[in-house]
Structures are given as structure tokens and as C-alpha cells.
Amino acid sequence: MTAMQTRFMADAEACVDAIIETVGKDVVLGMPLALGKSHHVTNALYARAKKDPEMKLTILTALALEKPSPSSELERRMLEPIVARIWNGVPDFDYMKDYRKGNLPENVTVREFFYKAGSYMNVAAAQQEYISSNYTHVVRDLEVNAINVYCHIVARGEENGQLVFSDSCNSDLGQDILDYMEKSRAAGRRVMHVAHVNRHLPFMYGDAVNTPDVFDIVLEGEEMHTPLFSVPKASVAVADHAIGLHVSSLVKDGGTLQIGIGALGDAIADSLILRHEKNDVYRSLLADAGTEAHYGDLVDSIGGRKPFEEGLYGATEMLVEAFMYLYNAGILKRKVYQNENLQHFVNEGMLKEKVTPEVLALLLAEKPFYPMLMKEDFDILQYYGLLQEGLFYDDFQIQDRGGKLWAADLRDENYRKELAGALCGSRLKNGVLLHAGFFIGSNDFYEGLRTMDADERRLFSMTGVDVVNQLYGNEKLRALQRKDARFVNTGMKLSLLGNVCSDALEDGRVVSGVGGQYNFVAMAHALKDARLIMMLRSTGFRGGQTVSNVVFNYGHTTIPRHLRDIVVTEYGIADLRGRSDREIISKVLAVTDSRFQEGLLKKAKDAGKIPQHYIIPEAFRNNTPQRLNALAAKYKNQAVFAPFPFGSEFTGEEQVLGRSLRGLKQNIARKKWATIGGILGGLFRPVPAAAHPFLQRMGLDQPSNFKEKLLRSVVTHALISGGSLDAAVSRQETASEKAMKPATARATVR
Q: Rounded CA gap, 531 and 61, in Å?
């Protein structure tokens, strides 16, 4: 079965009619991870399946995007203005609403290979239909599930006067999907490839660009150009900043970086920028954090402290917003080239941005350019700027801009030098600063990409995860490009022997998914100068108490201990590569929260994995939040460890309210009755004046009934107990409380 002629449509219902007409009523719909899904086609297909019980719809995707929804009156007051401001005009997926409620019809099945962390913990259908898959195996697994429709959003553009489309935010599976479609048609299967045009998508280059003929349907209508889903910047806690600081010291100038989205990615970027722009403050911070004293040799060996001269190149499955901060700061500036010879010369420092005849002559003495320069190799040299524009190659001769002919025979050294001197270009061009498979971020991030000119956008090359997440296929070039790589990932739990759990709980419930984590772990071990850095917050809050994320053992493993490398917590760096079990345990304990060190050490001794006489060194026995908070306080006036280092979509009041209400939730779990007592007591105390802007934001500044008065007291208590009101308010509140006590008590206080 050959591909149909591309049909251009403006109506989602007509598109669904065409899909069913082609593949029948058993629709297996594949969609990209995260941003690249079409709301309009998906909702139309789902509505059709709900209406027609004879139709069967299976949805295969990952990371379905949902606007936050409130679960209480207080959350409603907090969220409604935020949702209206940040996600104005962004549609919902209708199937997700029913999925959450457990109301999917029997003829609809949803399967995903990656979840937003923790979002489906109590959704039975999601837990039962999850597909565990490496990112590089996703298309293979889509094939196993026999998808017959693949639909995604694209950007419209023009190249050389011809209409083209860009996969933009999701080139991750692009080429593999095209191959699958071609193979399916060759086998006689009826399949459909649908592109939905959205003008809000930035037109990205690299392997993302396609001609219209690869699609069966191109859907574009005015009402379908909806705003993109925005992910607001996360607040960065002090512990996150401490992790980012340690990681930043392990990044080598001239190297390669892979990081992910969220607070930890922003923390790394913030520390890298501090290292580059305020190096004296950075070095002082490293010293005060203990990085210099405890891990200075490791930093000397694989990382650095100096500002970036060569800069970094990004090789990452996800183009996260943090990379744009690094780009704007002049750190993401090391360009790579899609040619082994050029990349080798660049890596060796022989070939710089400015091209010289001497270097060109040396390059022309290397295969494949030597001994005879062929047309395809001439084109490569001209494309990358080593040869001048305006030259023409024909019949083993090069015609220069003056009409002179030069032989393509390069065997004579003197002739090579003469040709290089005459035809040498001025500067390298068409280099790339970053390769990525997909992106999602804030509205500011999208706008930044859209407003770049085309040449600048080409620096950020979108490609498949089969390229960026592994070495297979072009190992030598990718190894040259990804020199001194630091692949940075996040784990949830770490065993004392180095096993990492990143995706699920030991009862089998899936928290997120493995995604591309294993791919980058394997690549870190395959590349001779690469390192895996696994980040871990040393503690978590569960069941009303603080628990250690470092455990003796855990009933689920994502990355087994034989693939261990470097682990970083807020308390330090554990270099585990090549270490014995005894050494691993001692190094892991040194970066564990001190509240849990002795208990873990006892378990290791009981198991005979560490000598009975071993004592955790004194230097690592003060791993406490208090020490980190004191470090942050010391540098507060130098804008270090800011909660939103790159700005926020939330107002100042919303930032304070969010932090205070999260703290209140923990306080209720820890000391329920004392917290409730404080809230009830607040009903009889005057409201501090400084609380009024926050109460006004929540619509509680003028309560009209008892319920609203109670909510006002909840918010006020959260603000006070979280220390969010200024010292004057605290003094005012203390004075108010004293005034209500007996005189003897006041005298005692005095």
C-alpha cells in the first residue's frame, strides 16, 4: 500500500472521518510525549469513541499535560487566578478528565510510558496500563502495540520557496515514526500520519524539518492555533541549590552537558552562571560548602572552578529552559559539527571559529578529502565555511569566483597549500550548540525561541532520541562531539550499595517512568571521558515525618549498582565508580543526612558490609538543613540561592502563599492538634496588617461568613508560622499574645 496524497483540512471532525475511513473503527492512536499532542484531533476521536460503542480507541503516549485543578476551597482561591493567567486559552484533553474520575468508557484504553511525577499514584487504570520502556525503545513498543494513527502538532515554514513543516517541540520520535509508517504501508497495513499546524510553535531546524508529502493529513484551522501548554518555573529550595552547586563544580570547560527540567536543573544553571560571572563569590561558596575541602581533588580531575572559556555543548533529550539561561550567559557556546574530520580538528584545538589557510591545508591532507576531493566532500567543506562561497565544482575541477580552475587532485603538498590560500573561507559556519529531542517550558521560553531569527534558532538542533540518547549509528562522531560529557539525572532513593530507584515504588506503583535515564547512564559508561551524575535529595517528607531517601536496601531498582558512578546530594559528592562495597557505603554515608547516618551504619555493620570499628568522620556528621540554611543566609546579600533565580510567573504574594501553605500542610501532618489550635486561636486575634495583601489575593480580606473567617485564619496562621511576615509583624503578634496572658506570665516572659 503506497502513501496517499497529502490532504489539507481545516476541520477536526472531517479529519476523524478520514482516519476511520482509512484505518477502520479500531483506532490505535500514537501521540508524542508532553507538548506535541493535538488536543483537537484527540478530543474529536475520543468524542466519537464515546458516542459509538462499536468503535475501539487505544491511546499510546506519555506525559499528558493537565492544568492544575483544586481539591479544596483554599486551593481553588489560590489556583483560579493562576490558571486563568498562565493557561488562558489552552484546551483540556477530554479523555484525561474522565480518566481522572475513572469514567473512561470500556471501548477506550490509555497507555503511557512516562508520567508526570506522582500524578497517577492512585489511578488504578494508569498503574495497570503503564508500559515500562527506555525512551529509545518507544517506537519499537508502539509497533508492538500496532499503532495505526500517529498525530502531532507542527510548525509551518518555508525553505527555498517550498512549504515545509517542523516537528518543533517533538522531533524525538520523528524519523523512527516515518520509518514505521513506510514499513507498515509496504506490509499492506492501513496507517495514517496526521500533522496539526499550530502557529504558536517555534519553527525549529535540524532533523525536525519535513516536506508535506510525509503526512497523510495536514490539519490547520484558525480555531486550532491555541496557546501552548506552559510549565511555570519551579521554586528552588536551599537543598536544591546545594546540589546544583556541587554538580556545577564537576562540569568541565569545553565539555558536554545534559540536564532535565525543574528545580534541580535551574539550580545547576544558576551555579554555573555564578561560576562564570561572579567567580570570586563562587569559589568562596565552594569553600564554605565544603566542596573544596572534601572533593577538591575530584574537581581538579574532572571538573573546574574557573569561568568558561571554551564553553559547553548541550546533548540532551530535552531542551530545557535552563539551557537558554546558559546560552544568554555565554556558557553554552561550544559548537559541534556533523563531520568527523572537522570535529576532530576542532577538538584538538587546530580548527577555530576563524578559518586559516594553514589549517585548511592540513585538513585537505586527511581522508576523505585526500587524495582526490570529490563533489560531496567539496560540498561539506563549503557548507561549513572552510571553502569560500561562490565556488563551483565540476568534473574534478573547482572554479573560483574569478573563473580560474583548480584541480581536485590534492596529492602535492605545495599545491594543497596554494589552493588552501586561494580558496579558504573566513569563518566556520553551520555549527550547533545543542542537540535535543523535545522541549517544553514556560511561555517566556516559547516566546524566546519564536523571536530568534532563523540562523540563531538553527543553533538549537532538534533531532531524534535515537541520535541524542545513544551512540549507536554514528559512534565516532557522537563521541567526538560529546567529549567530557556530564549526564545529570535524578533519583528518588539510593541504597547504601549504590542502587538507584528513580521511577517506581517497591510495591510496583509507577511514580514517573525510566524515560531516557538508562540511555544516559549507559552512554556515561561507554564514553571514556564521560561521567554520570545522579542527583538525590537526601530526605523526603512522608507520613507526617522526615524520612531518609538513602536506605540500606529498597525493593525496586531503576539503575543497578554495577552502573553506579557519581551521586550528589545537598551534603556533598560521592564518587562511587570502581569502588568496593566498603568504600561505597562510607562515601554514601558521608552525603547522607546526619539524622539517619547512625541507623544506616548499624545496618551495614549488621550485614557485615563495613568493619565494626568504622566511625563516620566528624567532618560529615553535621549534614543538617540548619547548616545549609546558615550557608544560604551568609550569602543572602549576594543574591545566591534565590528561590526563583530566573524569575517567576507567580506574583510575589503567590510565591509567599505557596511556600506558607505547603509548610502548613507539613505542620498539620507533624503536629496536627497544635496547628489546629493555632488556627482556631487566630479567630480571636487581630489580623496583622502585613497579612492583608496576601488575604486580598485569596479573596479573604473581608470575610462574609464563618467559613471565610476560618479560611482567613488558616492563611494567616500559615504566613506567621512560616515566618513569611516581617519581624515587625512577628513582634506585633507576640505582643498581642502577651496581652491576652495573665500578668504573672508576662512578668515571667520579661
A: 31
Examine residue 631 and state whether it is found in any structural domain, yes or no: no
DSSP 152-190: EEEEEEEETTEEEEE-TTB-TTHHHHHHHHHHHHHTT--
Cell of 458: 538553527
Other C-beta atoms within 10 Å of 156: how many? 17
Residue 471 near residue 138 (C-beta atoms within 8 A): no
651 dihedral zone (left: phi>0; alpha: psi -120 to 50; beta): beta
Q: Are residues 107 and 193 in the same domain?
A: yes
493-547 pLDDT, tens digit each: 999 999 999 999 999 999 999 999 999 999 999 999 999 999 999 999 988 899 9
* Residue 633 within a domain: no
SS3 content of the chain, % helix, strand, coil (to 5): 45, 15, 40
Residue 445, C-alpha cell as written in the block: 521560553
3-class DSSP assignment, residue 534: strand
| Same domain, yes or no: 272 and 394 | no
Residue type, 108: V
Contact 29, 151 (CB under 8 A): yes
Question: Rg of the Cα trace of the chain?
Answer: 29
Q: Residue 4: its pLDDT value, please?
A: 62
DSSP 77-129: HHHHHHHHHHSTTPPPPHHHHHHHHT---TTEEEEES--STTTTTT-HHHHHH
Is residue 630 in some structural domain?
A: no
Q: Which of 381, 397, 423 is the last residue of a domain?
A: 423
Instruction: State yes or no: pLDDT of 736 exceeds 90.
Output: no
Residues 210 and 254 occupy one common structural domain: no
As to burial, measured by CB atoms within 10 angstroms (0-12 exposed, 13-18 middle, 19+ buried), residue 349 is: exposed
Output the average pLDDT for the chain.
94
C-alpha closest to that of 425 among 381, 379, 377 = 381
Contact assessment for residue 695 and residue 701, using Cβ atoms and an 8 Å cutoff: yes
Mean pLDDT (whole number) for 617-627: 97
Q: Categorize the per-residue pLDDT at 724 as very low, low, confident or very high, splitting at 50, 70 and 90.
A: confident
Total domains present in the chain: 4
Identify the band that residue 735 occupies on the pLDDT scale cut at 50, 70 and 90: very low
Q: Which domain holds residue 195?
A: 7-224
What 3-state DSSP class applies to 530?
Answer: coil
Q: 100 and 181 share a domain?
A: yes
Residue 47 within any structural domain of the chain: yes
